[in-house]
Amino acid sequence: MYNSTPLLLLIIFVGYTDICSAEGNKTHDWDILILTQHWPLTVCLQWKESLPQHSCNLKNFWTVHGIWPTKLGTKGPEFCNSSMHFNQTQLEPIEKQLEQYWTNIHNGSIYTLWKHEWKKHGTCAATLPALDTENKYFGQGLKWIKQYDMSNILGKSGIEPSNQGHTPQDVWNAVQKSVGKNPTVQCFVDPKTKKTYLFEIRICFDKNLTLTDCDGIKGPSDPTTGIQTNCPLQKTIIYPSMLPPEYSKPFYTITTPAYLQHSWLLEALRIIQFLQWVTL
Ligand SMILES: *[C@@H]1O[C@H](CO)[C@@H](O)[C@H](O)[C@H]1NC(C)=O
Ligand SMILES: *[C@@H]1O[C@H](CO)[C@@H](O)[C@H](O)[C@H]1NC(C)=O
Ligand SMILES: *[C@@H]1O[C@H](CO)[C@@H](O)[C@H](O)[C@H]1NC(C)=O
Ligand SMILES: *[C@@H]1O[C@H](CO)[C@@H](O)[C@H](O)[C@H]1NC(C)=O
Ligand SMILES: *[C@@H]1O[C@H](CO)[C@@H](O)[C@H](O)[C@H]1NC(C)=O
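Above are the sequence and the 2-acetamido-2-deoxy-beta-D-glucopyranose SMILES. Below is the predicted complex in structure-token form.
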């Protein structure tokens, strides 16, 4: 009797690992696609806060961040097929449009974002024949950003980058009203100023590429309204307008005379520049 215990444990253990590996295959399943658009100025603000030397490729309209296949209630799947390499040549026919509407806001190669999105999300979306090549996947993003452009959708409800005082609920309502399905609204809370910036808006599609509610995707939601957002609902949010021209260049001015470098004066100038920018 005692002697059979290790065997029993072994059987249980083997059974357990079997379940795990079955679960393992299943993790590449997904339910819906999230189309995430982001507001370039907020992306840039976040990027510069992580390192002031960072620079941005700014746009004054919403751009695509990605198309993310998602299993409801969980994150991912991600990185589904390592043999589907990113090949930038395949994007040549649509590259000019991608540069406009699926921009790498961060400084660096224009291909960095596309490669990342393809490896992490595109290889999972590729189980759909409609999205099984780079050209189809990125081309779909272009179609959707034209059809569901948030600059236009928010504008129709009077939400423009220059006019402030809107709440996350106003933004959510504007999108819901326009697309007829529940979106997700994401904010960036500036760790330095504690101000809340409008950051991302997500709308969702089923496997027929038809709009569907984003309900059930993983992420925070407001406990009273059920609205999917990480924004504090009671606070107004900043939807920043165009940055001054100096912020489309590297943050540290390249033309600084050598004698000023690392001096207290330059530090003071940097702080003033920064304050001017964040208090826009
Ligand atoms: C897991 O993968 C194996 C082989 O690839 C397959 O036979 C099995 O049916 C899969 N299990 C599930 C639950 O998908
Ligand atoms: C991964 O991609 C390769 C190359 O496109 C393809 O032949 C293979 O079937 C894919 N594997 C899975 C599990 O989808
Ligand atoms: C990338 O795609 C181009 C155009 O389809 C093709 O000619 C080239 O062989 C591909 N490169 C790789 C490394 O697969
Ligand atoms: C962006 O710019 C910073 C500062 O010049 C540099 O350190 C960083 O490597 C750049 N990032 C990329 C991806 O090129
Ligand atoms: C997609 O469309 C087909 C045919 O109209 C339908 O049978 C199917 O249920 C739809 N799938 C989803 C996920 O809505």
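The longest helix spans residues 4-26.
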